[in-house]
Amino acid sequence: MSDHLTVLVVDDDVLIAMTCADMVTELGYRAIEANSGAQALDIIAQEPKIDLLITDYSMPSMDGVQLVKAAREAVPGLKVIVATGYADLPPDSGLEVPRISKPYTLEDLESAITKIIGEALA
Q1: pTM of the full predicted structure?
Q2: Is residue 1 part of a domain?
């Protein structure tokens, strides 16, 4: 894969964020972890190149939909994958993004990343 791809992993559960970041690294990408929407936005403001955001949907203070909308204001066109235990995002979210169901395997994550990055390169 490409070590030039930088993936921001956001989950309020530190263990889940760390596990996902480890998976991202195992797939050959650079991973940055954040444990809140606010922390993720701080990283986006400071990090010159975030290629992909993988965020939990259900987080306190700022949910995944709110984070994606704010992140895309800072980085228009940012590629996003929402990780959730819910069957679907709320219909009023106004967000059409790929979703990966928790719990997910390394293969599930690889497939989701490959699909979204492949679409970006097409």
Answers
A1: 0.90
A2: no
